Amino acid sequence: MHERVVVVTESSELLESVVTPTIAMRGITKNFGGETALEDVHLEVRPGEVHALLGENGAGKSTLMGVASGTLQPDGGSITVEGAAVEFLTPNLATKLGIGIVHQHPRLLPDLTVEENLQLTVSADRLGEDPRRGMQQVLDVVRFDRHLRDRVDSLTVAESHLLELAKALALKPALLILDEPTASFGRDEVETLFDLVREVAARGTAVVYITHRLAEVRMIADRVTVLRDGHNQGTGRVDELTDDDVLRMIVGRELDHPFPPKSEVGDDAPTVLEVEGLSGDDFHDISLSLRRGEILGVAGVVGNGQTALLRALAGLDSSTGVVSLQGRSSSPRELAAVSAYMPADRHREGLVMEFSARENAALSSLPRYRGPLRLLSRRSEHDHVEREFTSLAVKAPSIEAPASSLSGGNQQKVVTARALLSEPAVLVADEPTQGVDVGARTEIYRILREVAANGTPVVVASSDAAELEGLCDRVVVMSRGRAVAVLDGADVAEERIITAAVASDVHDDSKATAEARASTPLRRFLTGDHAPVVVLALVMLGLGAYLYFDNPAYLSAFNITSVQMLVAAGGFIALGQTAALLTGGLDLSVGPLAGFLVVVGSFFLNESSGGGAMALGLVVMVVAAAAVGLVNGSLVRFVRFTPVAATLVTYTALGGLSFLLRESPGGIMARSVTDVIGFKIGPIPVAFIVLVVLSIALEYLLRRSRWGRELRAIGSNEEGARQAGVQVDRTALMAYVLVSLLTFLGALVLVAQIGIGDPAQGVGYTLSSITAVVLGGTSLLGGRGTFVGSMLGAGLIVQVMNATTFLGLSQVWQYFFQGALIVLAAIIYSQVRGSRA
Question: How far apart are CA 230 and CA 57, in angstroms?
Fold first, then answer.
């Protein structure tokens, strides 16, 4: 039984009778497998009102807003938008209807730029005559101070939320959904957000505001609806409900004071953590101490070095200075081995989203669960994790449910469970209650206090000064990477914490932090996709110059023609492989497909065939290639094979078909066919010119067209791409078809080179195509890469093989150099990608 408290005033009934709701959701039911997330839920939001939506983690708030934004389809109920019934709401339709959502965890595309993220979500007509100027104006409104061409993965958590907010506001929404929008914001950013919310509401926009903070509800909301366990618990005007009324609806019981009593720590209590002159990236000369039983808080406006300090205390980042733990000086490596770190960004750093909740929680404490023969005891692991989950009231279908399926607050509880299960010597928590409901927050406070009482140093950073006041015994306030105040005892008060943070006039003389975050054209280039291309081109020029001076025959017409024909064959196939990798996929079948197509062509493109038969042969080759692409794409996207497994199936099948068609080489190609394919302008084959033109054209489309942005978006963040309106399955399927069609072009060049249907040919192009793509800077994880880089990568491979001949080296050196190039490319790629300087 669910106790329901419904508060509806006479004035609200009168308003409902005369105002058409912007959105009305009635009887919404949603099930996930055997679990009911929503049951008969009602929500109406009116024009110009801010409607708060409250409830514990797992109560169904985000699920309901997923239905409202079209990312989830309800199993029952109805939706009307501005009085019109909507039968099937999708993200694209929601955007057209003016429904914008700011997710608790930004659904951005990290490998794309700020500009490209906006372009994918917001149509040009909503940005005015000058779209770039329109984008900048929207970003200025939310005080987003980064360049349009900065890559999103370089943004801070707070900046990512601001960009998500800008995307929603750019839609000029009729309904704006804000899911925990202030979770990573500092005081100034919260005030800016509230001003924006009031402005859009004053213009008639309906706002749904999801939060766990009752103080924010009082400041911003007109009405409130509470959910508990997927059911309505009540709706009413904020000014007609007390905090106790709301809390009773949220948790179903009276709630005690959220903060446990602080420990009475005497002056003679032993010091368990002492820091002297600690400096690192973004913070300088920090000294502090912590006695047994105390919790140390770290405060300050977001972005002033708090997170960097915590990471150094946990041994995750290098630092200078002295950190003493239990009276013993500890190096960063030693700290990392004995500390537990709870990051603020649980998606990027806290969880492996594909792992189960159990696996995530046990990840740092696996040595505790050893059984006979030092093997992992699954039962011991299960029991420990289940006990910790019960203590933290983790709500999940089961402990085997993937972390990605849990609500944000329950994901945070899993992070907490992992930290506690590791039995750390020091616990470092960055925003430990971010996105956690009021009931779970109280439980986390209790546990942190118990950990401190047992002698483990606890350091907590929080942007909520009230939280630090209630939880911490001592607070270090930071500004511009330096400690500007240390508050102790009665001085640990919200007002004094805020005053110390905002009134500081400390300056960083080195300006290292500001310079490190500054966006410059050079830095954007170095972290962009084309830096590896330039490196690759310089390597090729340098190698070519060396070979020419060693042997001028290197630039003879014969060698130029031979090399460029080899580059054309591998280059077309590498372009295809790039299309697959950009989506986060892979195609192992390209080599056997090229060989298979040559074998097919050998039955049609020989001397005994007429023009009609040859034309038919080309059609058959194209159709066969497209069919293979469709099979590969379908296996990956609809049958849900992994790309490796799916394309390995076709790899094997195509190799077998080639030998079924021709047990041995046969079917000599017509000279007229090979002459056309190998036609030259001077020493340069037309096939090579086509490769260069096609590479540039594909590169242009990759950067300038919606198709290119969607291709990269899928590999960057598939769920984010889907919610941005990308037809993910269709786009990925067509990418595999493109792979096969480009492989067909490579097969045509092989027809001219081989001149015969050989079933053993082509297989080697699978590995060489992947090598070329990696050399060109394309990420094997998807989202980043260039077609031009892949073409150059194919060129470098051929150049290296050609160089061994001119230098008189054995064939063994070809493999050695090819392997060395891959390793070098990986090193350069990782360094460039990781560069923030």
Answer: 11
Query: Within 13 A of 708's CA, how many CA atoms are on the CB side?
Result: 16
C-alpha to C-alpha distance for 158 and 166, rounded to whole angstroms: 12
**Residue 169 corresponds to which amino acid?**
L
Are the C-beta atoms of 715 and 782 separated by less than 8 Å? yes
CATH class for the domain made up of 523-834: mainly alpha
SS3 2: coil
User: Sign of the C-alpha dihedral, residues 740, 741, 744, 745?
Assistant: negative
CA distance 518 to 530: 20
Residue 2: pLDDT band with limits 50, 70, 90: very low
Average pLDDT, the chain: 86
pLDDT tens, 611-639? 899 999 999 999 999 999 999 999 999 99
What the block records as the tokens of 158 is: 């707070």
* DSSP-derived 3-state class of residue 592: helix
Burial letters for 296-327: b for 16+ Cβ neighbours within 10 Å, e otherwise? bbbbbbbbbbbbbbbbbbbbbbebeeebebbe
Residues 5-50 pLDDT 10s: 444 444 444 444 567 999 999 999 998 876 788 999 999 999 999 9
Look up tokens 């910790």; give the residue. Answer: 388
Token pair listed for 64:
């309901």
Kindly tell me the burial class for residue 782, based on how many C-beta atoms sit within 10 Å of its own C-beta (0-12, 13-18, 19 or more): buried
- Answer for the pair 618, 597: CB distance below 8 angstroms, yes or no: no
Angstrom distance (rounded) from CA 484 to CA 505: 9
Q: Name beta bridge partners: 206.
A: 175
- At 214-240, the pLDDT tens digits run 888 899 999 999 998 889 999 999 999
Reading phi first (left if > 0) and then psi (alpha if -120 to 50, else beta), residue 373 is in left
> β-strand 84-86 against 99-102: which pairing, if any?
unpaired
In a 3-state reduction of DSSP, which class is residue 707?
helix
pTM: 0.75
CATH topology of domain 271-506: Rossmann fold (3.40.50)
Query: Nearest-5° angle of CA 303, CA 479, CA 182?
Result: 40
In contact, 42 and 232? CB cutoff 8 Å:
yes
Angstrom distances, CA of residue 121 to CA of 93, 114, 166 = 12, 11, 11
pLDDT in tens, 474-513: 999 988 788 988 998 888 988 888 778 765 555 444 333 4
Contact residues for 625 (Cβ-Cβ < 8 A; gap 6+): 593, 597, 740, 741, 743, 744, 747
311-318: long-range contacts at Cβ-Cβ below 8 A with a sequence spacing of 24 or more? 311/341, 312/278, 312/280, 312/283, 313/275, 313/278, 313/339, 313/426, 313/428, 313/459, 314/339, 314/340, 314/341, 314/426, 314/428, 315/339, 316/341, 317/280, 317/281, 318/280
Query: How many Å apart are CA 810 and CA 807, to the nearest integer?
Result: 9
All structural domains of the chain with their residue ranges? 10-98+173-251, 271-506, 523-834
| 10-98+173-251, CATH topology level | Rossmann fold (3.40.50)
Whole-number Å distance between alpha carbons of 50 and 177? 10
Nearest alpha carbon to residue 145 among 192, 99, 100:
192
Distance CA 679, CA 682 (A): 9
- Distances in Å between the Cα of 148 and the Cα atoms of 81, 132, 138, 458, 521 are 33, 8, 11, 39, 11
> In CATH terms, are 10-98+173-251 and 271-506 the same topology?
yes
Give me the residues paired with residue 24 across strands.
Answer: 44, 80
Helix (H) or strand (E) holding 411: helix 408-421
How many Å from the N-terminal Cα to the C-terminal Cα in the chain?
58
* Contact residues for 121 (Cβ-Cβ < 8 A; gap 6+): 95, 167, 170, 171, 724, 725
CB 383 within 8 A of CB 326: no
Residue 20 DSSP code: -
